[in-house]
Amino acid sequence: MDVKEILKRVRRIEIKSKRLTNHLFMGEYNSSFKGRGMIFSEVRPYQFGDDVRNIDWNKTAHFDEPYVKVFEEERENSLVLMVDVSGSQDFGTRKQSKKDTIAEICATLAFSALGNNDKVGLILFSDEVEVYLPPAKGRFHVLRIIRELVEYEPKSKKTSIPGGIDFLLKTQKRKSIVFLLSDFDDVDYKKSMNVAARKHKIVGIRLYDKIERNFPDMGFINMTDNETGKQQLINTSSRKVRKNFESYFQKVSETFFTNLKNAGAGTIEIPTDGDYVKALLNYFKRHKTA
Q1: Does the predicted TM-score (pTM) go above 0.70?
Q2: Strand order in the sheet with 129-136
Q3: Which stretches of the chain score pLDDT less than 70?
Q4: What is the DSSP code string of 163-191?
């Protein structure tokens, strides 16, 4: 993909994502991910109903009448987009690949965060961390994130979710909102997820292609593993073969939901040709902060 095509694609994604955030996501994002705590705002005279625990005793003694400290919610969050760029993300048989869908979802989330004056960061990982953009504000920073998602060519095609999570924990010392986007075709990430979800608000978004769930009868085909490069001739007319593929898909999906829910993390599952707008909105509406 040449530079002009990359810039055109980034622009298309920006226009589409900003339209979605302006009309759909702003209120839902804001209510789902409120500020991380309370900060001091001012001192004022005591009013009936104020919490006596907030009385400022120094001011009260000085003016010989009760004064209270007023606190307000600290609105600013840090949103970290943690994206699996391993070889399996290039797969897609319908409208687009997992990688393409991930780029659009990330852009939508990033512009939602931008509209709420939140910082946005990016971690691209395979079986190693390949790109890290620390959380920052501004449209140009968001566009840089989208460009990385569109044009970056990973050095490795393998996956290590625990490796990506370890990097997250080392770099994000303050509690952040973390969207982890992957097909979650990995093993042994349960322990890392438990640790991360205690420190941060984690939402896992699992992308899949519908052919992975319901494998069709296409006769004999040459299949290549996108992560290992291994090729194999497969007889898809065999009911047993198709059943094995479908069972594997179900196992990966069940492991994803079990691991993340047990850790206290959020879960969203989206097909590459599915309505990710609806999936995100449904999640936000279910997880509004009171």
Answers
A1: yes
A2: 129-136, 119-125, 78-84, 177-182, 201-208, 266-271
A3: 1-7, 9-10, 18-41, 71-76, 288-290
A4: HHHHHHHHH--S--EEEEEE----SS-HH
> Measured between alpha carbons, how far is 134 from 121 in angstroms, rounded to an integer?
5
146-188: pLDDT as tens digits: 999 988 999 999 999 999 999 999 999 888 999 999 999 998 9
Kindly report the length of the chain: 290
Question: Cα 260 to chain center, whole Å?
Answer: 13
d(CA 219, CA 235) in angstroms, rounded, equals 6
DSSP secondary structure letter of residue 226:
T
Token pair for 133: 């953009």
* Strand (E) or helix (H) holding 70: strand 67-74
What residues pair up with 38 in beta bridges, in sequence order? 73
- How does pLDDT run across 213-246, given as a tens digit for each residue? 888 888 888 887 777 778 888 888 889 988 998 9
How many Å apart are CA 74 and CA 64, to the nearest integer?
Answer: 31
Q: Where are the alpha helices (DSSP H) in the chain?
A: 3-20, 26-32, 57-63, 98-115, 139-151, 161-171, 190-199, 210-213, 239-263, 276-286
Residue 62: Cβ-neighbour burial (10 angstroms; 0-12, 13-18, 19+): exposed
* Cβ neighbourhood burial of 121 (10 Å; 0-12, 13-18, 19+): buried
